[in-house]
## 1
Amino acid sequence: MLDQPTVALPTQGTLPQLKLLLAGPRGFCAGVDRAIRVVEEALRRYGAPVYVRHEIVHNRTVVEELEAKGAIFVEELDEVPADGHVVFSAHGVPKTVPAEAERRNLLYLDATCPLVSKVHREAERHFAEGGADSRHILMIGHAGHPEVVGTMGQLPPGAVTLVNDAEEARRVHPADPTRLAFITQTTLSVDDTAEIVEILRSRFPLIEGPKREDICYATTNRQEAVKAIAPGCDLVIVIGSPNSSNSQRLREVAERSGAPRALLVPRLRDLDWSVLENVHTLGITAGASAPEALVQEMVTALGHRYRLEIEERTVKLEDVIFKLPAPLG
């Protein structure tokens, strides 16, 4: 795992005061931690280089640190040499990807988050019920996101229809409204998804859904934590990458929950210090793919400019750990 240093603040003297609310939980979830461990263990076991199809998780700091250890990130398998070891990212891949790896006799490791894999199995179950019992699937998610591409790619073309938002939920017209099921991307806004599901259930009373919500525990917990701090903040900073769905949703949730402004900041060097003018209470959280080291780096930098009053607000403790996949486990 990546190092998570503790904060060492300087003597603050007569610096201006800033109240800092740290949301908890924040940062790495069990699926992200597992994916990073897959790459690190593969490097330890097989030696460098190890190829990774797409970003292992959506965070440049994580990618750069793994590159420094010998990982090579590629877009497609045709960039992997015949004798290469390749890891599939935490977001999951279409079935065509492992099939191509097997055709080329590549040794591949699947770092797909188990909670994403659960959604894959749900889709397969609805589709494979067979004959008249088979259901068309509506997937709630964002077009082009790797998790959505991977999930839709578990089934033949045409078996899944993507529903991006509430407006599309109102417009979608499946061939047989009585034979439907829905699944969701795991990193969506809890509130937005609830609205979409309500629309679909209202329009299609016979639609089947998952026994438990597809949105993962980590996404839910981080959004609840942001809701707990946002009303008392002048500004909320979400540490995370622009292509991270869960980080973008945290920014949206912060503003909807009472923060006058919320910003997505990949890391300290991307922070425009002028945004802190007239900010007396600052909230900080981090997306599920952002290492805690980035939070600590920002807190330390704030401590050089302000006399900090730091308060941790934790809404739930997390103790989830996922085992490594075979043959690493």
## 2
Amino acid sequence: MLFNSLIFVVFAVVYFLVSKLIGNRLKGRLLWLTAASFFFYGWWDWRFLFLIIFSGLVDFTAAIGMARYEKHRKLFLILSMIANIGSLSVFKYSGFIARTLDSFLGLSGQFSLVNHIPEFFLVTPVGISFYTFQSLSYTIDVYKKRLEPTKSIIHFFAFLSMFPQLVAGPIIRARMMLPQLLKLSPISKDNAWIGFRFLVKGYFKKMVIADNLAPLVVAAFSSPEVNPSSFYWWGVMMAFAFQIYCDFAGYSDIARGLAKWMGYDFIENFNHPYISTSLRDFWTRWHISLSTWFRDYVYIPLGGNQKGKFFQHLNMWITMLLSGLWHGASWTFISWGAVHAFFLSLERILGWPDYFSKNRFLKVAGWFLVMVQVLVAWVFFRAESIGKAWHIVKTMFSFAGPVTLGWGLNGTVFLTVMFLRELLEAAGVKNRIDWESKRWMWFEMVLYALLITSIVYFRGNGSEFIYFQF
């Protein structure tokens, strides 16, 4: 069920109407949220509901076991990790592992390993990477005694299956969400308006920007060897950079808007990543819920930067490679993580962010360098194979061919609109709500009226959110 579909609009209307009828009956609210979320997830394939239920039951039981049987805390944590990482490996990575072994061992035909895997296990359930990480963080936090386990299974499943962020994040920590689910505070006028703003901005990013840029990117990557122009490919990668940002950030904004209307707060998942002046800064702004998850549950437990420079780089490389693998069962995603790891290591060794922070001119130069690195890395993320990715990168740095960006008037218009909008938000307008200023109130009303008009009349062909595949 896509956020940008009519069936979701009907679903959302029914959800909020029934929620209004339930009122402040806490148990009823949690039951209704869980049931609605199961329906939302089962809309794609009801069979995969058993997977999220299995993962949730294991982790709910493991957390209770940790609290009751102190001597066996580690055993319950291992059980949780086996269940979550095991299900993720079977459904998302079994085909990739089998194909890799087939290629390495030269197996094919009836001897091929991938041909012996049941077809059901070769289909990646929507959002499995998100809800398994969310559930796993719960048991880890209980194990570390950062969180007391909930004794209500409905309370736990309301957290785990919450439909606004179930299939594409942001990844919500139990420490933040479980207490919120027990609150029955009314939704204020300001929060209702904030939720509306998130929703409109999210739909604008997805339907107007991302969906209009998508055909340009798809056409380019369908035949990457056709166009030998360096300038063309730099333009394509700029288009893809904004497409994936607006697609994913748009989903996160819609999720945050729905959460506001439900009476909850989700963390900010994107903070203008394309204004970063260092790659480290970029990773504090891009997909924040995932980058902080890997920081807290992978990088720091490995030792972080506490064991000398060599292990600092090694831990960072392991974290980035795992981050690439999390995104997809493909060597292209692993290569994307490796490219970022290489540039991050180079950044730490040379210390150039400190140099580029000395004045405004150098800050612009630092920003330009970061954007080059990010665009090069996006090639590996988007390309169908490593061979095609290298072909595109070599073309980008050949600086040959005709001077054409290849995205035409439409692409120029949508990129310009989004670029100006990013500048406006980054300048500080984003969170300003001043009801005492009539001038500001009228400005916002006109702005959001224009955004809604654009969504209605200038939307692209509706497409699935990119991060649904992860």
## 3
Amino acid sequence: MRTVRLFSAALGSLLLGALLWTGGALGQAQRFAPLGPLPPVPVPPDNPMSAAKIELGQLLFWDTRLSGDASTSCASCHDPKQGWGDGGKLSRGYPGTEHWRNSQTVLNAAYYSKLFWAGEVTSLESQADAAAAGNVAGNGDPIMMEERLRQIPEYVRRFKEVFGVDRPTISMAWMAIATFERTLVSKAEDVPFDRYAKRDQSALSPEAKRGIALFQGKAGCVQCHNGPLLSDESYHNLGVPRNPEFESNPLRQITLRYQHVTRGVPEKIYRSADRDLGLYYITKQEIDKGKFRTPSLRELKYTAPYMHNGTFETLEEVIDFYNRGAGDDPNKSSLVKPLGLSDRERKELLAFLLSLSSDHPLIVEPPDLPGYVALK
């Protein structure tokens, strides 16, 4: 069922592209999915949306009791006021650890078929589980977290209403959180580029319109950033510079080496661990070292810093990096080459990238959480 919905959405995007962009400013090579507004959010048939489930998921998203020491919630690393990331170059990690990757925004995460920087999971439900239970993220024991939920009468009532059960289960908690996250999406009416795509010529400046042509032409961004999500969801090595945090922070080094060991990296590589190996953790193929999933370009205005290790603070730095031909790495993608963009062209490209963000950031205020009650 989900496949049918995704195919229909993709077909709709293709038809939209054929209608709007033929011979126009958005014309592009046919081998790339056309740019355009996002389709309806794909919803798995085994976890349908409902208002009550969204409300429950919002509570759980902010509840620190879904972690090991009850100090860390989803919102700790995905703060609405930080673009639904944590605002840092590298994520904070569970107390006593320091994470090795940038905390990605959850805005529009509902559209990804693979989540995390290396695509380790394939659904928002499994992402919530992996984050809350992961040893360097939430570090929560599933049985302990489940028992906490069962001693909160308001949650017992809400789980009964939403799932029809007398006792909350942790898997249902992940389903509720994923349902809430499927509401955190860009609205076409709020995004200048999307308004332009719907034939509002005044939505973009002349500078941004020229940026679209660069994006799809001379700059070649569309090779990896295409379709409504502006991501091919594939994996590429760009030779991104190392984050110097690894050179000076022992906790970062410990956490990275822990990642190497738990993901089955050979001892020789583990002993000299000095960088995130990306897709290699999954495939163990040399060619996949340093490859990361292409992130969406939507909401860039609110989601700095950028790259898997947060090494760039501004979009200007990102554009300059690509203009130089990206970095140096034996596995660097053949798609990235020096661009030769002038100062004016870099500004035009930036204007287009900024047009992919909503006029105002999506802010959701933290809810009041229900309390424990001792069982009789």
## 4
Amino acid sequence: MYTSRPETHRMYYVAIVCPKEIDEKVYPFKEWMRKQFGCMVALKSPGHITLIPPFWMDEAREEELTATLHQLSGNESVSVELNGFSHFGDRVLFILVNENEQLTVLKKKTEAHFLQNFSGVIKKDERPFHPHITIANRDVSPGTFVKAWDHFLKEKFESSFIADTISVLKLNSGKWEVIDEKKI
């Protein structure tokens, strides 16, 4: 059943946004999916590792949301290694983030912090944490997936970066934009 949202509500999420040089390496894979199969959803967001999945919130609370971000403390920057491609089912293709306990701890601390202040808005993510950088999602058809996965099985991708910033993103006119960020 479709539930309509009040006009005052917008979508947000919290993530580690990839540095520009990493995003520039990821973008061609998203663009390839657009050109080959018309997949557009992943192009609406910068390369990122989601810490808190998208949620609806009254825009009037946006300042409270960003203040909560700046109250997040006790974290250290995290070394992130990217290595190859993987997928969730036949709907999501992504760049694989190597397992990293520091990243898992950062996700848990960030989620607990935001849940404390936005428990009625943000829901605890019950799915296991599998950090990744999406290159195609939701608009990948099963037939498209098979062809795309065959392509990405032959591709290589290795890179790394230091995650030292957490960002809040907001959906504006169909595109996700960073509205605030905080150094870890």
